[in-house]
Amino acid sequence: MRKKCFCVLFGLMAAVSLQAQLRNEEVYEVTEMNRSAVRTEVRIPGFDGWQTLKCDFHTHTVFSDGQVWPDIRVGEAWRQGLDAVAITDHIEYRPNKEVVLGDLNQSYILAKKRGDAIGFIVIKGMEITRSKPLGHLNALFLDDSLPLDVEDPLKAIDAAIAQGAFVMWNHPGWPDDRSTLYPVHEQLIREKKIHGLEVFNSMEYYPVCFNWARDMNLSFMANSDIHGLINDDYGTGMRPMTLVFAREKSAEAIKEALFAGRTAACFNHELAGLAEYLRPLVKASLQVRKIHEGAYEVMNVSDINYRMTAGGQLFIVPAGKTIAFRQPQADALVIENCHVGSAERLTLSMDEFLNR
Ligand SMILES: [Zn+2]
Ligand SMILES: [Zn+2]
Fold first, then answer.
1. Regarding beta strands 241-246 and 51-56, do their DSSP bridges make them parallel or antiparallel, or are they unpaired?
2. Strand partners, 292
3. 76 near 230, Cβ under 8 Å?
4. How far is the CA of 72 from the centre of ligand 1 (A)?
5. pTM for this model (two decimals)
6. What is the CB neighbour count within 10 angstroms for residue 253?
7. Which residues are placed with Cβ below 5 angstroms of ligand 2, an ion?
8. Which residues neighbour 356 within 8 Å (Cβ) at sequence distance 6 or greater?
9. Using one digit for the tens of pLDDT, what is the confidence trace for 198-254?
10. Predicted confidence band at 4 (pLDDT cuts at 50, 70, 90)?
């Protein structure tokens, strides 16, 4: 009887399976091989009424020096669990322009078409590209990229500002391995023409810049600056993301949050941002349950691996895992992967952590 049941069940499964794979009597399709329609969610909780949106505000396509067509960027971002991507091709450096025709607006038009087809947010940007001291800046939320194509980069920034763009200073430590705040940056920040700072870009971060962002009210940003295929660089690991704490999932809400400074940089399970945002984010991510006096469970509901130290002990709470937590003899807990300054980590009092 059991054997018969098993045979019936197996036969049913085979029938369902074959039905799913049968395209016609001569062609079968192995649908489960197709990963293009599978998205890996990145779980990072919201807090205080904000949603945490995962965004990449710096990507390239063949329309500048990237190696992929714009709609590929959108598909990659969707599959990797992002909520929005900006296409930010170089204005001045377009080595493919002889063969890839189209003006400065073209890469966004193609990416947006793909985004609209799959319900994904695509932001129109451009990278203003000069040598240091100015370096590179991304202008985001543009209407028309053409007015930015001018000789004087300060005029290009003005043209972006005139469109209400959010301007970020890219990779301040590249290419000379020196993170230098030049007078031109101080001036632009003072004039509110630079609003964000890439404290992480591609594979590198600039710890000295954590204090600059914090002290000069610039939005913390972490972006891929991807040129080739995203999986070639990050594989199944976490790509860099700018976390945006937004009232809703829309381009308008992202823009509002960027200008309000409600962001954090997220790279390789490290977070950099203001304590006022990282503190509630950590509390929303690490949920504490008391077992009895001195004994707790800490459940990490996020996809970020957390490292904490207290009383000379190291506690690692992997993404999506729960650890047994015996209360150490210490008044405070340092969240080692949460940077709130150039050499400062987020600290929670033990009481705040355990009793909230
Ligand atoms: Zn650049
Ligand atoms: Zn770039």
1. antiparallel
2. 295
3. yes
4. 20
5. 0.93
6. 18
7. 127, 225
8. 283, 288
9. 999 999 999 999 999 999 999 999 999 999 999 999 998 999 999 999 999 999 999
10. low
Helix axes 106-118, 70-79, angle to 10 degrees: 40
C-alpha of residue 127 to centroid of ligand 1, in Å: 7
Strand, helix or coil at 307? strand
pLDDT at 144: 98
**Distance from Cα 138 to the centre of ligand 2, integer Å:** 8
Calculate how far, in angstroms, residue 107's C-alpha sits from the geometric centre of ligand 2.
14
Identity at 148, one-letter amino acid code:
L
What's the 181 CA to ligand 1 centre distance in angstroms? 16
Sequence-ordered list of residues with C-beta below 8 angstroms from that of 221, at least 6 positions apart, any chain: 57, 168, 196, 197, 198, 199, 200, 242, 263, 265
Nearest partner of 353 among 296, 291, 275, 292, judged by Cα: 296
Quote the DSSP letter at residue 158.
H
CA of 135 to the centre of ligand 1 (A): 8
Per-residue confidence band for 124, with pLDDT thresholds at 50, 70 and 90: very high
pLDDT at 12: 47
Higher pLDDT, 37 or 172: 172
344 Cα: distance to centroid of ligand 2 (angstroms)? 28
**Cα distance between residue 229 and residue 203, in whole Å:** 15
Tell me, in angstroms, the distance from the centre of ligand 2 to residue 272's CA: 21
Residue with tokens 């008044």: 331
Where would I find the beta strands (DSSP E) of the chain? 51-56, 84-87, 121-129, 136-140, 166-169, 196-201, 204-205, 219-223, 241-246, 263-267, 270-273, 286-292, 295-300, 306-310, 313-317, 322-326, 332-341, 344-349
| Strand, coil or helix: 110 | helix
How far does residue 287's CA lie from ligand 2's centre (Å)?
Answer: 38
Ligand 2 centre to CA of 58 (Å) is 6
